[in-house]
Amino acid sequence: MAEVKSTCCYCGVGCGVIIETAESNGKIEVTGVRGDPDHPANFGRLCSKGSTLHLTANPSLQMQARLGSPAIRKARGEDPVDISWPEAIQTVAQKFADIIQEHGSESVGIYVSGQLLTEDYYIFNKLMKGLIGSNNIDTNSRLCMSSAVAGYKQTLGMDAPPCCYEDIDSASTIFITGSNTAFAHPILYRRLEDARKNNPDLKVIVVDPRKTDTAKEADLYLQIQPGTDVALYHGMLYIMLWEKWINESYINSYTADFDALRDLVRDFTPKAVSQICGINEKDLFQAAQWFATSPATLSMYCQGLNQSASGTAKNAALVNLHLATGQIGKAGAGPFSLTGQPNAMGGREVGGLANLLSAHRDLANPEHRAEVANLWGVDSVPEKPGLSAIPMFEALRTEKLKAIWIVCTNPAQSMPDLNAVHEGLSKAEFVVVQEAYAHTATTLYADVLLPATTWAEKVGTVTNSERRISKVNPAIDPYASAKHDWQIALEIGLALEALLPGNRKEGTSTLFPYAGPEDIWNEHRESTAGRDLDITGLSYKILEERGPQQWPMPVGSDSGKKRLYEDGIFPTKDKKAHFIAAPYKATAESVDARYPFALNTGRLRDQWHGMSRTGTIGTLYGHSPEPCVELSPKDAGRMNLENGDLVHVTSRRGSEIFPIKVSDDIASSQAFIAMHWGSEFISGAAGKTPGRGVNGLTCNMIDPVSGQPELKHSAVKILPANLPWHLVAFGLFPKEEVFSVQNSLRSILPHFDSAQCVLFGREQDGGLIGVSFKAAHHDDPLEESESLAAQALKQVMQKFKLDEASGEPVMRYIDKRRGVVRLVRAQEKVLSAMLTGPIGSLASTAWLREYLESGLDAKALGRSLLMPVSKPPVEIKPKGKAICNCFNVSADTMKQCLSKMPAGTSPDDAMSSLQSETQCGTNCGSCKPEVKQIIVSFLKKVEVAA
């Protein structure tokens, strides 16, 4: 047994982890993970995603899910063929060199990721801007953080969150806007829960169009209309001015340009803002009062502000409130942007965006360009801004960009308006995909695949939301022949140097003189000298010996700086913060009679981004088991729809089919789909184009300042899908088979009008993982034996070992006249099943799945397992919705425990008793907000009944 300290690879909280390893068959393997109690970001806590990281590193899963060797496609559509690393490196370098020499340096681009380490990011930035001589490098952080960057720079002068996590402990009011913190940043939400417990007077305000778990626990919830954030903040400032709650001394001493903002907000009266935002004037007044008069107000915000065509304006308007009230530069106060990815901050630090340079330098500044050129040993850095994410893929579509190198990200799932993105990738002359996972939507377009290392294998640094740099350390050897991202970039960079005339100054032998990641990091450190993020006092050794450190930390400092602007001096020309008079603009895409619903996207509690990692763990589907579109009860009732009914969700860009979930959390005329569901998990051919998942619907209109797209709002229409034939298949498989089964099933998703394939079950309960496949079609495929759907149906039967060729013991019921088929494979227990036909004939699906998951004796029921009834022939205790994944505790189990408690039990006592009996919420705590809701709801019902 051995242990290695490292950092979680999911969100921007930057939690420290301890990776547990053991030797097996002569190899070191990851056996467990737990939170690092010494890490100041999490103090030993991990969320539901982080606490299952070790499961993503098990050898059998790696063999199925990972890219192991470099590979090349001789032609698009063909299977890739393994090649050697030298051949792969030379192929990529030669092809890039040929395209550059024929079409110029602007004809190629690199698209990187906030999940890269700082060292990876730095070398890719240098390769593109220094060696190739183009600024066509951008990052998926453009999709999540670029409006926060622009907002900070406009108002405060630099891209730096001025706060720290300790401010949560010190705040008197916390203003959460555009963030479902309970889901997106669970460990920070645990800290907020602790702060409320320690300070019962702490007020929490939540602003969100959707009534999230975060909103349900707020002291004041403002359910605004989508995209009206700027109007809300201007309306709050109007009240602050009227009530004289602003801090005139702070405004006069430390800020500029307030008069223009004062003039602008005169039109945002409480009545006007109430009508724009759809909230009560009383609630608007209360929010303004708590924000302005609190001893310390902390704002926490994320994609609800950023992912908008007005994202920069939203960020700046929120910062205006802090400047106007002096709620900045002191403990417990300030505008705190919560980073989406683990190293989006690190990418910004090295200039990994198309308009930035190393150490927060501006590309437009000739002095900054000269400083970087001198450091790198090149004649110059190009002045022209490069293509940011959305224009980059549009340039592929219009064939202005000939080649793209995609690193550690999945744009064929995560970009908006995916039909255009897929068209661009199809038209590209050359696509390189550098990736750890084999089966993302983007790998299908790769001419060359480069296998990269991932969590537990990498070494380097990341920077979290509070500017804290943490070390990432390897616990196991790289998988198969995978190489580190920086290493691949270095080798291709060296090969390119031999092929291109180059931009090197005389005496510079190479731009890549690095023996390892520490050499790269040291050069990055050198670039920060005298800058706002100066880390010249930091080293790998200090990070190892003294733990994670915040920047700035210049030479001579014992530690980094917790919070910024305590002296009221800002990094602007006049040393003052600047108010921005940002006008309110409605959402970029209008809702109208043709597209009457506002579609919102967001995160699930237990999944991460495109699910290339979390989507391999059955446990993590328990809380949200399948893709769906959430609608309000009013809208569902008006369309005569019930839970599970299929609907077409259609935007101006595409159409997808989803089952509906009726939810009180959704306002009327709005809809919600989780951002994670791409074509790897949900697809079909009922729309105008093959299914792309949720981002086949989303809007690619961008913020003119930040370049960030409006992923948070799209206008859609929702209509019932008339698909009379349905299929449900599910089964348990050994963990060494499950992912190959799932991947085979994924390949046939488009052959039905609507289909989805997800996992279920708990690997730690015995190694069997469930695979669930659902489909719907306009006709019975059995009657169309030559159709793609008919062939796909045969593959479903084969994969679940239900066909006659499998030789397995299968019970069969077939009614060809009605198109009904029921197949159950069972030995001592039910192992798999498939049911097809009209939706009414699938009534036994739920209990049969429960029977399979419960591992009950199949012999006791015999052929009654085929009965098309809604209730099982024997009593089965339903598990209900999984609430606590760590201990497999369902909502039904919780309610049963609560029913035993004596009358008059308080919510706190009920929580203690529930945790004592079931352990729910005692490990990662991600389920605690929902557990509290169940307790409160149950106790209310008991009180009413009494």
Rg over alpha carbons: 28 Å
Number of helices: 30
Top CATH class of the largest domain: Alpha Beta
Structural domain tally:
6
Biggest beta-sheet profile: 7 strands, mixed
Class from helix and strand fractions: alpha/beta
**Number of strand segments:** 37
Kindly estimate the percentage of residues that lie in beta strands according to DSSP: 15-25%
Describe this structure in words.
59% of the residues are buried. A hairpin with a 3-residue loop joins strand 14 and strand 15. The chain folds into six domains: 64 residues, Single Sheet (N-terminal domain of TfIIb); 264 residues, Rossmann fold; 192 residues, Dimethylsulfoxide Reductase, domain 2 (3-Layer(aba) Sandwich), CATH 3.40.228; 131 residues, Barwin-like endoglucanases; 155 residues, Alpha-Beta Plaits, CATH 3.30.70; 54 residues, no CATH class. The chain has 946 residues and is of the alpha/beta class. It is globular, with a radius of gyration of 28 Å. The mean pLDDT is 94. It is 31% helix and 19% strand. The strands form nine sheets. It has a seven-stranded mixed β-sheet, with helices on both faces. Strands 28-31-32-30-35-34-33 form a seven-stranded antiparallel β-sheet, sandwiched between helices. A six-stranded mixed barrel has the order 23-27-24-26-25-29.
